[in-house]
Amino acid sequence: MNSEPVNAYKNFKLTIEYDGGAYHGWQRQATEPTIQEEIEKALMTMAGVKVVLTGSGRTDAGVHAYGQVANFLCETTLTHDVFQRGLNSLLPRDIIITACAEVPETFNARYDVKSKTYHYKILNRGLCAAIGRQYSWHIPQKLDLSAMRRACGHIIGTHDFKAFEGTGSPRTHTTRRVIHADLVKDNDGYLIFEIEGEGFLRFMVRNIVGTLVDVGLAKSTPEDFKRIMLSKDRNLAGITAPPCGLYLMQVNY
User: Fold this and answer.
1) Pairwise CA distance, residues 118 & 152, whole Å
2) What are the counts of helices (DSSP H) followed by strands (DSSP E) for the chain?
3) pLDDT in tens, 2-42
4) How far does Cα 149 stand from its chain's mean position?
5) Region 165-182: what's the mean pLDDT?
6) Are 37 and 51 in contact (CB under 8 A)?
7) What is the pTM (predicted TM-score) of this model?
8) Residue 169: its pLDDT value, please?
9) Contact between residue 42 and residue 8 where contact means Cβ atoms under 8 Å apart
10) Is 166 exposed, middle or buried (0-12, 13-18, 19+ CB in 10 A)?
11) How far apart are CA 105 and CA 164, in angstroms?
């Protein structure tokens, strides 16, 4: 005798690529559009019940991602490939689920994170870009890449990054461990700031980039950069780089 399949309680891990330009960040908000809200709406359409996404962490308004990770628990007979295809058919074109996998119920996209990698893109040439101008920070003055790289060396390791913290940050302390930091230049005038860390303060990457640019423009030196970091004084650091150049590249578990 045939019977209907019984729903099973499952945990799904999503890897998400998105253009953050039209959204007020990752985290669901009451009045502004967010990435989390868009995916949760699509999940509710598929699952027929309210589903809550747990993200690896927030990205701010206007910030992009190639490798954001989230998970959700759902009582369903649907498989991971059905969820991936269905979500991509329902989501706006600036949000793509690049992978969906069923994972153990114990997996938590936020609390199981080991490190994250961010890239920040700077267009360093006289002319702005006509195509793709909304995805980088245009700085027409020539930047001293060597000096900026020397400054990068000062942030590797475990340090108090209070000088690079945005106001209103929810945190218990400002000490973080940076595993890797460097600058890479391509042939089209773009500089890519690469940073991997175990965790980041609010606006930390963008504030570091703004302070590195001061070094590149000879407004300060690599040694000044180190003194600013050690001062724990946000007022001494550079401006907050615009969100359009920041990308969450990968979350490591």
Assistant:
1) 14
2) 5, 10
3) 544 556 789 999 999 999 999 999 999 999 999 999 999 99
4) 22
5) 86
6) no
7) 0.93
8) 61
9) no
10) middle
11) 36
User: What pLDDT, on a 0 to 100 scale, did the predictor assign at position 84?
Assistant: 98
Q: Establish whether 144 is a catalytic residue.
A: no
Helices of type H across 135-245 = 145-152, 204-216, 222-231
Q: What is the pLDDT of residues 187-207, one digit of tens each?
A: 789 999 999 999 999 999 999
| Coil vs helix vs strand at 137 | strand
Length of the chain measured in residues: 253
Q: Which is the catalytic residue, given 19, 60, 214, 233?
A: 60
For residues 204 and 202, what is the distance between their CA atoms, to the nearest angstrom?
5
Q: Which residue(s) pair with 17 in the sheet?
A: 96
What CA–CA distance (Å, rounded) separates 147 from 216? Answer: 6
8-103 CATH fold: Alpha-Beta Plaits (3.30.70)
What beta strand segments (E) does 104-230 contain?
Answer: 115-123, 137-138, 157-160, 175-185, 190-197
Confirm or reject CATH 3.30.70.660 for domain 115-252, answering yes or no: yes
- pLDDT higher than threshold 50 for residue 1: no
Cα dihedral sign for 169, 174, 180, 185? positive
Q: Degrees (nearest 5) of the Cα angle 32, 85, 3? A: 115
- Answer yes or no: are the C-beta atoms of 21 and 94 closer than 8 Å: yes
User: Domain locations in the chain?
Assistant: 8-103, 115-252
Mean pLDDT of 85-109: 98
Q: Are 194 and 117 in contact (CB under 8 A)?
A: yes
At residue 186, the pLDDT reads 85
Q: At 72, is the secondary structure helix, strand, or coil?
A: strand
Supply the pLDDT for residue 248. 98
230 three-class SS: helix
